[in-house]
Design a protein that fits this description.
The structure holds 2 protein chains of 2 kinds. Chain A is an alpha/beta fold. In chain A, about 45% of the residues lie in helices and about 20% in strands. Classes of the chains: A alpha/beta, B mainly alpha.
Chain lengths: ~375, ~300
Amino acid sequence: MTGKRILAVFCVVLLSLFSLCGPAWSADEATIKIGVAAPFTGDAAAYGDNVKAGASLKVEEINNAGGINGRKVELVYGDDLCAPKEAGAVGSKFANDKEVMAVIGHICSSATLAALPIYIRKGLPTISATSTNATIGKVGKGWFFRNCYTDDFQSEFLATYAQKVLGLKKIGVFYEQNDYAIGLKDAFIKAAEKLGLEIVGTEAYTRTTTDFGPQLTKLKAGGPDGIFIAGYYQQGALIARQARQAGIDATLFGGDGLDNADYINLAGDAANGTYLSVPFIAEASGPEGKNFADRFKQMTQRDPDWMSANAYDCMGILAEVIAKVGPDRKKIREGLAAYNSPEKAFNGITGPTYFDKYGDCQKPAFVKVVENGKFVPAKQLR
Amino acid sequence: MFIELLLNGLTIGGIYALIAVGYTMVYGVIQLINFAHGEIYMLGAFFALTFLTALHLPFYAAFGLAMLLGALCGVLLDIIAYRPLRNSPRLAALITAIGMSIFLQNLAMIIWGSRPLPFPQNDLPAYFKQPALTVGGAPVSWLQLFIFIITILLMIGLYLIIHKTNTGKAMRAVAQNKTMAALVGVNVNRIITVTFALAGSLGAAAGILVGAYYNSVYPTMGYVAGVKAFAAAVLGGIGSVPGAMLGGVILGVAEAFGAGYISSLYRDGISYAVLIAVIVLIPAGLFGKLSRETKKSL
């Protein structure tokens, strides 16, 4: 009996040891792994889906053309739930996996800020397609890059647009309690006050807020003609619906966080007439951009948003760098830093991308509006 | 602004009351906080969503059917998870409740995906969006009126069941003393099942109302609502049904006024502060009764 027991335990231990070694045997040693950190579940999952689709389209292109110097590219996904805690876990996972050469991520500014110290400590370059909070570049220590604009720029643009094109005078502000929204809100209020716009109220909310009744009632008392939503699509949609239900006719407008088909799905008719600023619209992006838009629509049956376009370009930039310097984290970082002037810029579907010493980049802002349940380009700021 | 905030508070409060009543009834009969109750609320919303989108049933039919399914879920929860542990230490049942909560959340994620789904607006009765009346300058839509009326009707219905029927009498007997109730011929297990069914149907009703009102249904929606409703049940005195109803309304109104007059940033903090204040002053909650063990320790 005891002998059989010992044999059984021994077999189990041996098998489990084999299972640990398994992945190393079966791994295709030739692939280059790039981590993609984004929320794939939870209430910001729609962002992750689009980034995944955008990056995958570029990887498909690269692999069909033979890969980078003969080696295929493989994307490794980490679900950060758009939250700092999970972002740290994903960051550790990527940093400790020696095969991951670089990270495209994170999406939400709070998540990027949480994971960044890990990437810096372990020397893993990360390029974000979507984190717009202005402070990230200052703490990146050279390991952080992004090919989207920052919120300082976006807020100023929005305030100017609200005044010059939309003709608004009194604005009510909603913002979520996270780095992205607070940064956006602060910069917007500063810019708005400089332009002479009146801020009738600023109302905060958290990720779990579903009922905005009291806040809308408070703002309504101030008689705003515009409501600025600094936040993500899920809460933005709830605010839009409830604002209309409460009888508020003000023009809704927001930043890049609202750019997602789910905003329209969840808000229904209330979404019509919402303006939002984005770093990319397919209609203004030239033939390569239109090609991307068509392929994206074929793959996902929806129109591309700016996040997918930026993710596509992030992968493009990484591929160009790795083709030049090879799969080495430090060399990739130096390669990315070498894009430091308009002449040396990477030309992708989102325009020329080059980084300053903080890893930040300049991108123009466009405006979209929701019309009849679809995003269409709005009157642009000239 | 006062009237609008009050109406808003009464709407949220009514929803909390519906869920809180479920917590309190189950606690009353088996002294267990059913942490999975928030998930029945969530499942009710998803069931109604599926009936409306996949089966294209009319709204009221979907509402009724989803309530029935909610009752069924409550019963299944009892039979599968809690009945086997009826004679085990209370901690085992508590942990099972938390486990069932996690299980149901993930089951919903597998079945319906983790993204928030919109309630199909075209399947709701068309007049829902129209303003029904104006109270003190604040517009009240038919949907809001519907929520008020349903909440009140369900509460009255529950009250009548508990106080005017034999089953209700048996429920009160089991809540008072299980052993004595069994001795006088009450089928305790059956009564507990009925309690779960009632709690489940009310929770599901709350879920459907919230889904229709906010147009957003997602697998983790049960968690926040469940915690607030649990707080409301404790506020009113856990085990007391009128207490849970009152607790829900008080919490909802406190939240609305706190967010409107004090600061929307701390609205959750304000509602919980109200709870803490009441419990410190009246330890058993508004209508609760301290058990002998608790009285001794105080």
